[in-house]
Amino acid sequence: MNVLEVKDLRVKVENKMILNGVSFDLKSGESHVLFGPNGSGKTTLISAIIGLPSYEVLSGKIFFMGNDITAKSVEERSKMGIAVSFQNPPEITGVKLADLLKLCLGKTPKEDFGGEEESLIEAFKLTDFLNRDTNVGFSGGERKRSEILQLIFLKPKLLLLDEPDSGVDVESLKLITNEIQRYVENSGSSALVITHKGDILDYVKAKYGCVLLDGTIHCFSNPKRIYENIKREGYEGCIKCEERTTERW
Amino acid sequence: MANKDELTSIPHKILEEAYKAGVSSEKERAGTFFHIDQATIYSKVNEVFKGKIELMDIKDALQKYSWLNEYMWKAVPRDQDEFTRKVAESFSGGYFMRILPDAEITFPLQACLMITQKNLEQRVHNVIIAEEESKAHIITSCLQHSTVENAAHLGISEIYVKKGASLNFTMVHQWKEKTIVRPRSATMIEDKGTFVSNYICLKPVRDVQMYPIAYCNGEDSKVSFNSILYGHKNSLLDIGSKAILNGKGSKAEMISRAITREGSKIIVRGLIEGNGPECKGHLECKGLIINDESFIQSIPELVARKKGVEITHEAAVGKISEKEIVYLMTRRLSRDQAVSLIIRGFMDVSIMGLPESLNSEISRIIEIAART
Fold this sequence. Notes:
The structure holds 2 protein chains of 2 kinds.
Chain A: E1 2-13, E2 16-27, E3 31-35, H1 42-50, E4 55-64, E5 67-68, H2 74-80, E6 82-85, E7 92-96, H3 97-104, H4 115-123, E8 133-134, H5 140-154, E9 158-162, H6 170-187, E10 190-194, E11 208-213, E12 216-221, H7 223-240
Chain B: H1 12-20, E1 31-36, E2 39-45, E3 53-57, H2 58-64, H3 82-89, E4 95-99, E5 104-115, E6 121-130, E7 135-144, E8 152-161, E9 166-174, E10 180-189, E11 194-201, E12 207-210, E13 213-216, E14 222-231, E15 236-245, E16 251-260, E17 265-274, E18 280-289, E19 295-304, E20 310-318, H4 322-329, H5 335-346, H6 356-371
Helix pairs in contact in B: 4-5
């Protein structure tokens, strides 16, 4: 079954056309990687899937578990089981990380974390941040750890990960990506991962990769192969190579 | 004045009102003071804290201590304005608190000034003396009986922080929509003394205007003014704080958080004046405006009179960040839940630098106040 189906999606941001006919499917229990140069619209695609209001869908459809969600609000989509980890999450003064994590778990701020939850917080090295305002004064890596932990606590069916590996040290990268893989495997959920680096592919078992360029998706293929090609030929060269699967995902 | 021994001697209805406003049973308190309308009806220091603090009606204190006259109208000028003049003319009492030298009081004291009569103009004069090397946290709550209309509260507070003393003074105002409130307070801080003033106003009020001053006269003396202001139901809050840094190396910090909605107006003023060498100050004001009928103005003023002075400010007023709201909505919150979480967070009391026990105390009071 397809968790996600994106059909001929055209998206405008601040009067600028960013996505010009993007189509792909994501099957249940599979993870895919989205490559693309800076400014190619990767974040826009993820933002349109979660439904951020400043991303205007001009045409096309988004289906989640068979339901048309194109007109649904962010809140509705997140409640249906889509969750996103942001590349640059905002600082929220006064909202403690502990409270936000509890909200993700569906708990009230007065409830305590469970033992397993506490171990996970500890493993993510976020125990000392629980009483701090969310993202305020957090380093890049700390933000990423906090984002991924929130995501896991939300127990989504579809994970949208916007560069979970940027600004993260080697040790944290291993931790974050192992936990993502563990969650995806155990829950049978699906992930769409944006990345610029190949390292993440050592941990997250992605079946396919693709390249977003000029507002559309090119080259559905093995993600490691794509990454090697990008390293060798650059994005333009990678697209021309035609060593790709002929069918879409 | 009827100085009774038990809190239960206070009329039931009044006590109920006080509990609602966050006053709790006195077991947890260092001391309790009730001034209702024009009379002090209760003042008591918890046994555990005897020998550390004195608490009594100011009129009794003036009879007991002739030296107290030296502290009356020394920080606040008698003829500052029409309100100080009125209180100088006649006042019904007020509290006298004296934290004894070297005493440490880590529990809150509660002073409850209450109005139960219609059209009453309550006039009080409070004096607090933090003696040398003492350390205290005080929470005072001013409130009003729910049936009362058209009342006014004129309160003079003169606070003296002696050498090496540290006083953390938190005031929670819970007046009614038709009350006019004019506190006039000033603090004198000696060498290495620290004064932290926390002001919280969450309930609708007709009109509060105050501009407390702290004089950092002593070397390395410090003052912090923190305020959390929530203007709703057409309230007018004109709240300022002034720090006059006279002592060498004295410091001031001002932090305010203001939210305005439902036709309310908030003016946040702040003045830091560096007169002494090597003075430092920082002023921060953040304001949220929720709807178009409301108004918020931030007026920071920085003055330097010595070349070593360093005073800075940052201010931001405007709407709640859409990015923050949407972020929280991706965590399964509705828009309304996200907005209220941000607002509650915005009024987070941790800016006040209180110990954890008092943080939860203030949070509890805010929670109660926010309910109505």
